[in-house]
Design brief:
The structure is a single chain. This protein folds into 3 domains: 3-77, Beta Barrel (OB fold (Dihydrolipoamide Acetyltransferase, E2P)); 103-190 and 210-247, Beta Barrel (OB fold (Dihydrolipoamide Acetyltransferase, E2P)); 285-504, Chloramphenicol Acetyltransferase. The radius of gyration is 29 Å and the shape is globular. By secondary structure, the chain is an alpha+beta fold. It has 11 helices and 26 strands. The strands form 6 sheets. Strands 17, 20, 21, 22, 23, 24, 25 and 26 form an 8-stranded mixed sheet that branches. It has a 4-stranded antiparallel sheet with strand order 1-8-6-3, with no helix packed on it.
Length: 506
Amino acid sequence: MTTEVRVPTLGESVTEATVATWFKKPGDSVDVDEMLCELETDKVTVEVPSPVEGVLEDIVAQEGDTVGVDALLANIAPAGEAGSTTVEERPSATKPEAKPSSDDATPVDVMVPTLGESVTEATVSTWFKKVGDAVQQDEMLCELETDKVSVEVPAPASGVLTEILAEEGATVEAGGKLAVMSGGAGAAASAPAESKAPAEAPASSGGKDVEDAPSAKKAMAEAGLDPKQVTGTGKDGRIMKEDVSAAISAAKSAPAPAAAPAQAQRAPSPAEDAAREERVKMTRLRQTIARRLKDAQNTAAMLTTYNEVDMTEVMALRNQYKDLFEKKHGVRLGFMSFFTKACCHALKEVPEVNAEIDGTDVVYKNFVHMGIAAGTPQGLVVPVLRDVDAKSFAEIEAEIAEKGKRARDGKLSMAEMQGGTFTISNGGVYGSLMSSPILNPPQSGILGMHKIQDRPMVINGEIKIRPMMYLALSYDHRIVDGKGAVTFLVRVKEALEDPRRLLMDL
């Protein structure tokens, strides 16, 4: 009896994956739990083990194919029986089937999938199909946006999209109905003939009949790019999100056209200005960021205190040991580990900066889960490094590098961005000289780092040029008094100007 190998559950809010690599080929013997293939999602890589011992009879989803949850990947025959199963006996996404009558076309509901923990509603962002279009099972129908992630909705079966119940911009609840399909092979076969036109004649998208990645379509729409301007590197020329990013970068680096001769211009009218404007609906993620930041201002009695730190000793220590540090630990020594350690040192002395308000209670944290704010193309995210007070410089640097990369790639899970007790925001990487960071609720403190700039300083009665950095501590005055905030910032300054204090716990 043939055993089917199907796509496993891919994780919260993940509905499809790409077949990255097959480790076996048809005819190979496989053992139970031996790795058959590897799938890639936008968050994780998933290995698919063999459910039984036997022989890999055929592969249904080839490398580069996009597959949905529970889609058929391959078939395994018992040892000694490979090849004995006929095509008619084995279910396959690509096998020929007898054409049923039109009576076999049964309605199939397209439902809103599980949206994730604590997420109850979403907004319909984009429909990739319209009423009357023929669709294949697991082909993307639409994309939903929540305040945390984007969710792509695949077709539950092959057929024809007969009705769309939630138009673009509509808000839908988890488990709600999005559309209705006329399911079954008969329905798919009875689709209008014009749905096959792209395969017979050059299409407006450049003559290819390959569906571009939904995330790539969205990125092209946001950037105002025509698909003809983007070279697809996916299977059969499919445009991927990375291709759009590359096209945008190439456009920015292209030489600017020669300036036209100056001409006298009249002031445009308000109507003409309006015609040149572009109105784009905020993503759910951006709406959430805006709401949370405004809630922080409305809820907390937020105040900011400033100081400056002489980075001479930290920079000298880093320059002296960075090569040896990287050789031993396999990670570069940066400034963030010094600031993280200095904050942990100061939080021990001023624990209210590491606490939070819960109703009429103050909750003191006897640990430090440090949030490291990071700017990404999707928006501001704050991955959390847990128990950093018990970690070494090397462990902190390695975790910052790893989480920072996955944040930029959009592969952080929600669990990795929750539970922080204090946050560091480094605006200096963008050139910021001074700013007032906003609290990350329910935390009571956030440290803002800024640009290191050479400035003249009076040292022992002499003017010397020193690398200086402004520090800003925003805190909730409901729980942290001015004395505590200033003391915290002074302890951070002392630890950075004399790093030996960290070693001796002074």
